[in-house]
Amino acid sequence: MKLERVEARLVRLPLRFPFETSFGVSTHKEFLLVSVSAGGVTGHAECVADVDPYYLPETNLTALHILQEFLVPLALKTEIAHPRDYVPLFARVRGHEMAKAALEMAAYELLARQEGVPLYRVLGGRPGEIASGVSVGLQKDKEALLDKVSEEVAAGYRRIKIKIKPGKDKDLVAAIRGRFPDLPLMVDANSAYTLEHVPLFKELDVFKLMMVEQPLGWNDIVDHVELQKQIGTPVCLDEAIHGPEDARHALDLRACRIINIKVGRVGGHTQALATLEHCRQRGAPVWCGGMLESGIGRLHNVHLQTRPGFVLPGDTSASARYFEEDLIDPPVTVSPRGTIAVPEKPGIGHEIVWSRVEKATQHTQVWR
Ligand code: OSB
Ligand code: MG
User: Fold this and answer.
1) pTM for the complete prediction?
2) Catalytic site residues?
3) Exposure pattern of 4-21 as b/e (b: 16+ CB <10 Å)?
4) How do residues 54-67 score in pLDDT, each as one tens digit?
5) 107 Cα: distance to centroid of ligand 2 (angstroms)
């Protein structure tokens, strides 16, 4: 495979509801849609960087810079046998996993289309369906949160995650537990706490949460070791895991018991699979995170999750939870049993609606 053309579009879609986390509020999903072409076939993926560096350091504009100046020139001049070859090719560029992932994931989708098979086949997955969970943002008050959680439980989702931050944590969890004693429930702090909050996390133990996700520093492993030592609830790392080596370090040091894999955060499908394989060998449960992706990135996540090893429901939910009109047709939907059907058509397996992409495009860049 040798790419002949790479396109990056900055796309902006309104979210149906503002999504609030401990690090901020989003009202729009703005991302780079990356398309790569070879031999008359084109593959697509989205970059999970955001407008701001509040989740992780990369932004849409840093990703565009790294693609334009470093990754795209390398990709355009190098013939590869398989998209996994982009990992060593891009290794000289430190970090910038989201920019690398976008190009590598688009190449995987291109490969699937070239071979006329669904993406899961080139990722070594299986047909069928995947279990679906939801991430519920911070709400106006406890009642609004209870309403939202009840709605998602009624929709059939297999597990509910709520966002927490200091001052909006224990009471919310207690309220949800009061109404749903057996609900598979977890919390995500997005790095809003420090070791001073160990007593609070000890108090959360009584609520039998599945896990607490990334409570401490965004790139920390060491302090999480101290926290995990002192609490019964499993710690799950999100932000701090940038590839298989971080997973190894975190599990060796016992900083966490569960790992959240986001393809974009670990540098692409190849690194996601390597991280998954490492965790599987260690017996550490893994699930697939989300970044409010449009249908294109959402479907990449669906296909990836067909690999054995994703033993817990992830954050991949229905398109309609976020978008009035997704960029794909049909949108991603969830069954009353809380599952998402794995597409069987080539590539991501749902049509991209280019008229909608066109309408949402702010800016386009093409390299040959
Ligand atoms: O921490 O998992 C996170 C969204 C944006 C940035 C970080 C996170 C999230 C989510 C949403 O929790 C998951 C989703 O529904 O895509
Ligand atoms: Mg998270």
Assistant:
1) 0.98
2) 163, 262
3) eebbbbbbebebeeebbb
4) 999 999 999 999 99
5) 26
